[in-house]
């Protein structure tokens, strides 16, 4: 059985700010049935410690980390996920968002906090924990990007897979900090960590890992372009031979309308009638008019321009004029939060806005809405559209990244063939979104066609099994290449 250490900054259900947590919480469990013994290393934020009350305290493999005392909290979650939480109070004993302080700005020592995560991962790779030592490290996003640098500096030869979940978040810090991170000065180099006169943790992960993956095939191709590469497109093209895109999946146990305790009534593709009861419950909860004839659109998203929320606000008059309702759950940029609050105030009974994040409400939104709007300017994979498919809430998406890979547009041919599962549009402009909203209303007017699309959506399988097999095969290929390399070096 292959032993793989996952290194990430969040993991559902212990701590979550976005889709990364869902992936880290689900993929290792999916791999367990494919001959992979996976463990997860993540920071022990206060909310993680609260959920790991029966954890066993273990010493750090390296004694201290970046000069700070700490320990590992070893536990198995109710779901069966084996985790090590890195408990370094100086870095992680902070209530609230894992990355942002109470002033709304990033914690000024984020480079030290997440370098500590990478440093301990490298120590586990070198020494193991108890009798368990990884054969391969699967590291995620910039917060774990220095793992291969520490491995290299310590001359630890283990394969590493670096997964880019969102290249826009790069972990960029002043170059002078390189020595505080415990790395030799030579690692501040244009081929390793240097990025426009600073250090980029993300660049380090891309440049120094054995292989690189991202979370959808289309996003993998998009990253090679200047438009989507965020200054790293040249490096991505350079590493093209070691790059692949593997779609994220969803936890079909957590997201299952037939067995979801967080919704008003269970339903399925075969027995969809109770979805109407969830719509009524959602309308009642959010103060929307109880109108079964009005298509109810929802948003579960960060309220940012990247997510295209400004385009939706611009098209809200059209959505309301055509008789629709809108329910919004999310937080983000202040002007967009204010815009959706104002829309709810000016359109009582037609628009509802909840600022913040609420996991139970997100389930009811997926169950109660008729369509979910995701007009992102870029989207590495996206999970909310997959939840929408699972719940028969037709996704209306821009044609980018994983959105393009997962939704079959309701064009005339797909509708006639019964294969449509949602709506796609491109380019990402207000006009194209308006046209696609009109197409959604037109399909809503043909209830038989809408029900057929809903059924096709709910029958789509985007669980983790297929993607887990792809990761398992990639791990095995990497381990085989590592063995061959070692054999070649010893001849």
UniProtKB/TrEMBL annotation:
SUPFAM superfamilies cross-referenced by the UniProt entry: UDP-Glycosyltransferase/glycogen phosphorylase (SSF53756)
Domain Starch synthase catalytic: 3-238
Biological function: Synthesizes alpha-1,4-glucan chains using ADP-glucose.
NCBIfam families: glgA, PRK00654.1-2
A molecular-function term among this protein's GO annotations: alpha-1,4-glucan glucosyltransferase (UDP-glucose donor) activity
Name recorded for this polypeptide: Glycogen synthase
Pathway annotation: Glycan biosynthesis; glycogen biosynthesis
Family assignment from sequence similarity: Belongs to the glycosyltransferase 1 family. Bacterial/plant glycogen synthase subfamily.
A Pfam family it matches: Glyco_transf_5
Reaction(s) the record says it catalyses: [(1->4)-alpha-D-glucosyl](n) + ADP-alpha-D-glucose = [(1->4)-alpha-D-glucosyl](n+1) + ADP + H(+)
């Amino acid at each position: 059985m292959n032993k793989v250490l996952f290194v990430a900054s969040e993991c559902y259900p212990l701590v979550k700010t976005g889709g990364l947590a869902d992936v880290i919480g689900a993929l290792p469990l999916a791999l367990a049935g494919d001959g992979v013994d996976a463990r997860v290393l993540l920071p022990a934020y206060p909310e993680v410690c609260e959920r790991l009350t029966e954890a066993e305290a273990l010493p750090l493999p390296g004694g201290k980390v970046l000069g700070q005392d700490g320990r590992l909290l070893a536990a198995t979650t109710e779901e069966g996920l084996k985790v090590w939480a890195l408990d370094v109070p100086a870095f992680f004993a902070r209530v609230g968002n894992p990355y942002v302080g109470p002033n709304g700005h990033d914690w000024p020592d984020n480079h030290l906090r997440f370098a500590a995560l990478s440093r301990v991962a490298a120590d586990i790779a070198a020494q193991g924990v108890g009798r368990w030592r990884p054969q391969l490290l699967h590291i995620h996003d910039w917060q774990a990007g220095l793992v291969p640098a520490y491995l290299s500096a310590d001359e630890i030869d283990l394969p590493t897979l670096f997964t880019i979940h969102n290249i826009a978040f790069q972990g960029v810090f002043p170059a002078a900090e390189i020595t505080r991170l415990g790395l030799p000065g030579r690692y501040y180099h244009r081929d390793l960590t240097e990025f426009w006169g600073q250090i980029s943790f993300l660049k380090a992960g891309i440049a120094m890992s054995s292989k690189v993956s991202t979370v959808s095939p289309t996003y993998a191709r998009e990253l090679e372009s200047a438009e989507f590469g965020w200054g790293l497109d040249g490096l991505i093209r350079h590493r093209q031979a070691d790059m692949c895109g593997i779609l994220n999946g969803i936890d079909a146990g957590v997201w299952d309308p037939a067995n979801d305790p967080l919704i008003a009534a269970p339903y399925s593709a075969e027995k969809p009638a109770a979805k109407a009861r969830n719509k009524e419950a959602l309308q009642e909860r959010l103060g929307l008019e109880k109108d079964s004839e009005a298509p109810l659109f929802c948003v579960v998203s960060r309220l940012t321009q990247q997510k295209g929320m400004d385009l939706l606000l611009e098209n809200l008059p059209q959505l309301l004029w055509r008789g629709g309702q809108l329910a919004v759950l999310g937080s983000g940029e202040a002007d967009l939060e204010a815009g959706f609050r104002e829309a709810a105030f000016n359109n009582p009974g037609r628009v509802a806005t909840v600022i913040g994040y609420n996991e139970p409400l997100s389930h009811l939104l997926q169950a109660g809405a008729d369509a979910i709007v995701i007009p992102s300017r870029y989207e590495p994979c996206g999970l909310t559209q997959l939840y929408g498919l699972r719940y028969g809430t037709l996704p209306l998406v821009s044609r980018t990244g994983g959105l393009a890979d997962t939704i079959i547009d309701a064009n005339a041919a797909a509708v006639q063939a019964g294969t449509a599962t949602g709506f796609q549009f491109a380019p990402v402009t207000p006009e194209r979104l308006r046209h696609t909203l009109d197409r959604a209303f037109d399909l809503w007017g043909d209830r038989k066609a809408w029900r057929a699309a809903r059924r096709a959506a709910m029958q789509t399988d985007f669980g983790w099994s297929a993607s887990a097999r792809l990761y398992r095969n990639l791990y095995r290929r990497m381990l085989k290449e590592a063995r061959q390399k070692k054999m070649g070096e010893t001849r």
